[in-house]
Amino acid sequence: MSENVKVAVRVRPFNKREKERQAQLCIQMSGQTTTITNPHSKEEKRFTFDFSYWSHDGFEEQSDGLLVPTGAQYADQQRVFEDLGRGVLANAFNGFNTSLFAYGQTGSGKSYSMVGYSVNKGIVPITCEELFKKMNENSENSSTRYQVKFSMLEIYNEKVRDLLQPPQQQQKGGLRVRENPKSKKFEVVGLKLVDVKSYNEIETQMELGTKHRTVAATKMNNTSSRAHTIVTVLFEQITKDESGVETTKRSEMNLVDLAGSERANSTGATGERLKEGSNINKSLSTLGKVIQALAKGKNSFVPYRESVLTMLLRNALGGNSKTIMIAALSPADINYDETLSTLRYADQAKQIKNKAVVNESPTEKLIRELKEQIEELKSQLGGKPMQPSSSQGAGAADADQALLARMQEFERQMAFQANVDQGGQPEAQQSTEPSMHEKEKQKKATTAHFTNLNEDPALSHIICHFVDQPEMVVGQDEDSAAASEEGGGEGGNYIHLTGFGIRKRHAVITMDGSDVFIEPGSAASNTRVNGTQLTEKVPLKHNDRLLFGTNSIFLFVNPANQDPSAGTPEKVDYEFAQEEIAKASGLLVEGGDAEEKERMSQILELFPMVAEVNAISDEMDKKMKFSVALVNDMMLPNASTSDRSQVMVKAVNTRNENEWLIDRAEFVDRRYRIQEMFGDWAYDQDKDASVYGPPRSDADPFFIEPSSVVVGFAGIFVVPLSLRMDSEDTYEALDYAAQRQGSVCVALEPCQEDGTPLTEEDFLDDPSALMQLNEPYHIKVMIRWAEVTHARFSTALRCVLYFGDLDVIQTPWMYGKTKADFNYEKIVTINKVTPALIEWMENGMAKVIIESKHKDDESTSSITRLTSMADMAMELQAAKDRIKQLEGGGDGDDGGDGGKKNSKKDRKASAKAAKELEKAKSELVEMKKKAEALEKELSTAKKAAKGEGDQEKELKKELKERDKTISKLESEVKKLSKKDSKKDSGKAGANNADVDAAIKERDETIARLQREMEELNKKVSAAPTGETVAVANVAADDLKESIKTVLNQHRNDADARALWTDVATKVGASTDGPLPPANKPSSVCSIM
């Protein structure tokens, strides 16, 4: 008979982070109903489950740390066990397979419900303890005999690790998962099964597994929140009926603590790439698909094989098992989206139906079946159980190892059954672990030691290193560690740590009575004590925090001298240790409003992530360095002039000093993919040797596409514009750290529509008069020049001026200079002056940023030289045009009636005109000098480029295919455009459907050709000179825009047009396309 999966939900108290952010409660519970409230719309959603546990408040903590209810609503650990664990236990004794798994967002309390902390034991340990209690009770009154086996595994990055095996004995690439052809169950080949005969032995094995998990997590820098843990208890009971026939009941209890569903919004990690890109979320995503398919019913395909997790949970979901799911909920409104997602997940799970049957068979039959299976496996191995030959190849060897492992397990089971049949009791695996465990507990009470701190409280205080010798060395040296275990090495006193950044002789610890001291072991070692860098010998106090390397954090405990350092809280955890480190960096500050506290919370979250990624970069020689940065909105390439800061990550390529500012979402995504890449590489460095070294393509998560970078910004107050007065100044350009990176000269000049400056008579006394004029307002924006202080930004320079919400003024790129003389002008026309505009002029500002281009590894390529020549040619022609204009006496006739209308104004401006004439003469002299210098520079550049002919030919050959595709695209577009035109002209009032069909056909063709271009560009990028081609593409696009601007200004000048067309051809840039109307200068922009 089938029955539904039972589902329980449990809400925890607010954590420290949520309290600091002043989070509000968004969850309510009444009976079996759970209600969640949207913090923005206040909309309520209700869900009904088998159990709804309120553990948010209504409790108190006793002196021993036990949490006990103060009212009827609070659900403590014992109540959860009575409702859920007691059923698991009953099912086990009745011969049913049972599964209990916990799901929820990272930090929502899954591990607390499953495992618990300290005296607040969770479902797993209580269930195991009660199992042996009941076994002992039953044994006193019956002849029933029992066997219990225990296994513990972890799934991380789609790899299975046996947690009962020490990390150094783990199989490379993880254990294999195979389907048993007879039982149709998925099995982990080679997983260690330990016979246990008491709860103490299970507790010892669980602690051993957790310790191995912690050591591996520290070494690989994983956190438990990103790994799934499965504890399996195999329980067998043998009974004899009145006729003397023995029957064996088997039960398999799977207790699953799933990885956290990532806190997407809280960490800033969003997007499908994060959700589906990492293997950690892949397994949860597949689990969701499985649950969804099972909830739909019989005819749905269930994708069990898409992840290791779902293969191993196949029995628990839709198979032979009685299954319970407990969903852990955050109570905070800031986690509303994640909590709602968890509730929906659980709501689907309750619709799954399982069909559990009693696993019972006669003992003799069971032995016979085991013998048959052993014989079958022997025949598959060639008639005898032999070790596979290395000559058989890796695939054959793996298959034979799998068969051997299965055969050995069947032999163990058969021996056990035979022993039971003869009246014997199973003997537990002999182990020294329990006695060692007890000795360690006793020693901790009297001896100074280091105990680890971990992001996951369940993995904290698992590793212990005693300080019991006059001098001890801390480091990461396998030989010294081995010698230390044998009593040799450096006096047999070597504390072996694993993790990033640990040196062979990292630190030295000395004892003087009950006093303990620490000093650096080498100049290169990174050690922090209470957040402060260790540079000399210092005393250690009780509960001091130590960071060794990048990610190994320990707490020093000194039972003989328990006086702590100043500022040490009563309870010290991982989060407090990280806060200290962040404060020492200068990024974290005390106090502040809610927004400031949120930023500090984000910094704390990013700090260990950045340290981890840097350590992996060093380990894999990626030549990338990351750091947390507080970036002012003014630094970002948008119109915002807010002084608000946001938390970002700065990335630096140490080979060429290229810099990027990455938002949190992108960095968190990269970090997940970096972890996975490192995990694969660390498991088998030979197999994945290609990923070692600097990133070469975007397949490597360390790779960041070279692009433009903001060098610095400057704010420009625009108050004079409200009175129709001009302004010109040189502004310092600051970076996100408020360090000067350069300067820029900008002028703002109210003018007439044709650019003629206004006179003093046009100035206003009151900004409100600007509205009363009731006429368009023209402003000439002039970016004179920009200069940067560092030569690394000389690759290319341009300025972008954000003129409020009115316009964005962008200069052309100038190459190879630390000072760029742009002399760029643009007239901004405001058709209607509004109160909002006047408010902006009086109280707001414009923003100008200086941008540079990242260096390319092939920066000396011919295309770079060619592009610089083109820019020089453009600059030279602009200078010649200005000379011609000045020598001609101005901009020419302003045109017919327009001149008459403005004649009165011109007479008033006669005095100013005389001054302008003198200024123009002076400028003429300077422009002639500039033209001469540019001609010389261009001539020199052409000579230098002459020797690059062969390289240019090779480049042009690679670009030829691209140009063919561009031509093909243009011709098809023209053909289809003509087709549309003929339809319109030849068939007035044509059927709209026909026109729509033609347009659709055109759009589809364009899309198809664009796809072809993308494929072609990928092939070109993969060529030996692919990086050169990429530079060519960027340069050509930028030049194309500049060429169009000049063509618009000189559309009637045949010589100028010929010059620009020739330049465009040299760099493979097309200049075809519609131009603006000739009667309206392209430099004038109308604003509604």
UniProtKB/TrEMBL annotation:
UniProtKB keywords: ATP-binding, Coiled coil, Membrane, Mitochondrion, Motor protein, Nucleotide-binding, Transport
Membrane topology value: Peripheral membrane protein
Signal peptide bounds: none
Domain Kinesin motor: 4-352
GO CC terms, sorted: mitochondrial membrane
GO MF assignments: ATP binding; microtubule binding; microtubule motor activity
Biased composition (Basic and acidic residues): 940-986
Keyword Membrane: yes
Main localization (coarse): mitochondrion
Biased composition (Polar residues): 420-434
Locations listed in the record: Mitochondrion membrane
Residues covered by the FHA domain: 472-534
Matches recorded under Pfam families: FHA (PF00498), Kinesin (PF00225)
Family: Belongs to the TRAFAC class myosin-kinesin ATPase superfamily. Kinesin family.
Protein name, as recorded: Kinesin-like protein 6
Species: Salpingoeca rosetta (strain ATCC 50818 / BSB-021)
Taxonomic lineage of the native organism: Eukaryota, Choanoflagellata, Craspedida, Salpingoecidae, Salpingoeca
